[in-house]
Amino acid sequence: MTHAFPIGRDARPTPLAVALQLAAANVPVLPLRAGKLPLGNCRDCAELACGGRPNMKTPGTCACPRPCHGWAAATTDPAVLCSSTWVAAWRQAEAVAYHPGGAGLTVVDLDHADAVEWARRTLPPTRTVQTTRGEHWIYQGTMASVNGVREGVDIKSTMSYARWRGCGTGTMTALPPVVGTLAVKPTPAPQPRAVPVPAPTGGGQCPHRSPAFLERGIAMAEQRITEAQSAVHHTVYRTFLAVLSAHGRCGCLTEAHASRLFAAAQSKGESPRHCADAWSNARTTLGL
Question: Per DSSP, what are the bridge partners of residue 57?
Fold first, then answer.
């Protein structure tokens, strides 16, 4: 936070006093009850009777004039914070929470010692706040909030709230790209699946080519598929057609050869069903 977090040094400031000082530093705040859950600060939403789900990304289902609990209720408006309904909520509150995204911040929530050690090895240093079990690392900048980016590590920024645990120590730095990449889960490369492939029937050895010719042809077909940069589905079909045209009637093409071609196609993102359809269509075109 370019925010200085100017919280007073009183031994035990009330939650409302803390909230007002945070709000003055342009940090949107909200009250928390036991269990770090937001308080419903209107009568209809007391004890979340409206059915609201404060940990979700949307406010509750109540029809209040404004969101009354969860991250969406966080505000910097002292008139709201000191209104009669909010004062009642602050009297019940056990802690203060804030909306990091609303303050232009991202909190990397490290839930245990192993996560803290990982952060010290991996992330640029920044403002650090001690928590009950670990640490909050606070960066200037916002991003989508994501829980469980790795064991014991949550990211809290937009559409989320974090418990206020004090000013912390250290100089706040800009949100680094490495934190953003944590939220992007890599798409696993498709793994080829074994698919039963009906190989053409025939008389055994190819009558007009050597086994080496067949092996070279299969290898070239695999290469053609794996090197395709566009129109992959069409390339797979045309390659299957070429292989079947050369060897589909003589019987030297086995199920193992066809499975190699299927695996090459699946490595380019083709589904087993698309492979089977392309193979079947090529055989139909050739009358096999």
Answer: none
